[in-house]
Amino acid sequence: MDNHAEKEVGDYIISLASEEAEGTYRLQNGELKWNVPEEGFNTHLEIVVRDNKDKCFIPELKIKGKVYDEGGKFVVEKDFPFLWHPFLFHYGAFFKIPEAGKYRVELEIPAPEFHRHDEIKGKRYEKDVKVKMQIEMESGREPHGPE
After folding, report:
1. Which end of the chain is less packed: N or C, by CB atoms within 10 Å?
2. What Gene3D superfamilies is this protein classified in (predicted)?
3. What does pTM read for this prediction?
């Protein structure tokens, strides 16, 4: 898949995937409501962070990222919150890119603050991580009904 990239960094395996912007449900006033991406948003960047030993998804991360086009021009800076998905938990964000193509993504992942069990295996994720990755990003919007 062209729109996928993966890299091992420290205790992590970081995977990126790009797809067209799509709607999501959000809890609003105690009720789930369907939300479409903001007008003009044309891409969705997904980030999966796994443990490099046991391959499990790592929850509760606070991921920040910057995106640059192929020429190095700054495109956007975003937080990448957790997004529930029926078969792939991930972090992600919607935003606008000028066009489909190659982009550089720079991520900062602070060391998580959650407790870790196991006196030996639990000593993981103690350092902040910064990583630069290249990815082919898609542009477009999934059909959402009325917008």
Report:
1. N
2. Periplasmic metal-binding protein Tp34-type (2.60.40.2480)
3. 0.92
Query: According to the CATH classification, is domain 4-137 in 1.10.10.10?
Result: no
What's the CA gap between 18 and 34, in Å, rounded? 21
The pLDDT tens digits of the residues spanning 94-125 come to 999 999 999 999 999 999 999 988 888 888 99
Tell me which of 1-10, 32-41, 63-72 is least confident: 1-10
CB 101 within 8 A of CB 138: no
Residue 134 CB: number of other CB atoms within 10 A? Answer: 13
Question: What is the distance between the alpha carbons of residues 13 and 7, in angstroms, rounded to a whole number?
Answer: 6
In our burial notation (b when 16+ CB lie closer than 10 A, e otherwise), range 21-50 reads bebbeeeeeeeeeeebbeeebbbbbbbbbb
Quote the strand ranges of the chain, DSSP E. Answer: 4-9, 12-19, 24-28, 31-35, 43-51, 63-69, 74-80, 82-83, 90-95, 101-109, 129-137
**In this predicted structure, what is the pLDDT of residue 1?**
47
